[in-house]
Design brief:
- By secondary structure, the chain is of the alpha+beta class.
- The chain has one domain: Cytidine Deaminase, domain 2 (3-Layer(aba) Sandwich).
- Helices cover 31% and strands 27% of the residues.
- The protein is built from four helices and five strands, in the order αββαβαββα.
- Strands 2-1-3-4-5 form a five-stranded mixed beta sheet.
- The chain starts with a helix and ends in a 10-residue tail after the last helix.
- The structure holds zinc ion.
- The site of zinc ion has 7 residues, from helix 2 and helix 3.
- Zinc ion binds next to helix 2 and helix 3.
């Protein structure tokens, strides 16, 4: 699949997740979508909680959906939201992505209205990271 096609498909999936996000406290919806090694797509949205630390991130939900559906490797992950700043994954989600990525994995950051803003490799976001091969 060509990169533009991948980004288009992931944008559609992540946008659907974005629309369904549960973010009554922050009003800050986030959607994410993963393309796994079998070309299957898994999405997720942020799910807030009245007990704030019990909330979860869109990337976290998308990774959970990938695992439930037998995906093993994140080939691409796209995160979408609405902010003047890039909506890059939080520190915990960078580590979560690290667990299931490889050197070619791309992390795409999108604005819900403006589209793709920037793509990263994980080592740009999480240098000298700790992963499964470190154990
Ligand atoms: Zn996160």
């Amino acid at each position: 699949m060509k990169l533009n096609n991948i980004i288009n498909k992931l944008t559609i999936s992540a946008s659907q997740a974005y629309e369904n996000a549960y973010a009554p406290y922050s009003g800050f919806n986030v959607g994410a979508a993963i393309l796994d090694e079998n070309d299957n797509i898994h999405n997720g949205c942020n799910v807030e909680n009245a007990a704030y630390p019990s909330g979860s991130c869109a990337e976290e939900q998308a990774i959970g959906n990938m695992i439930v559906n037998s995906g093993k490797i994140i080939k691409h992950i796209l995160v979408i939201g609405k902010s003047d700043e890039l909506i890059t994954p939080c520190g915990a989600c960078r580590q979560r992505i690290r667990e299931f990525c490889d050197a070619s994995t791309l992390i795409h950051i999108c604005h819900i209205e403006k589209g793709l803003q920037r793509s990263f490799h994980l080592d740009e976001l999480l240098a000298y990271s700790f992963g499964p091969e470190n154990l």
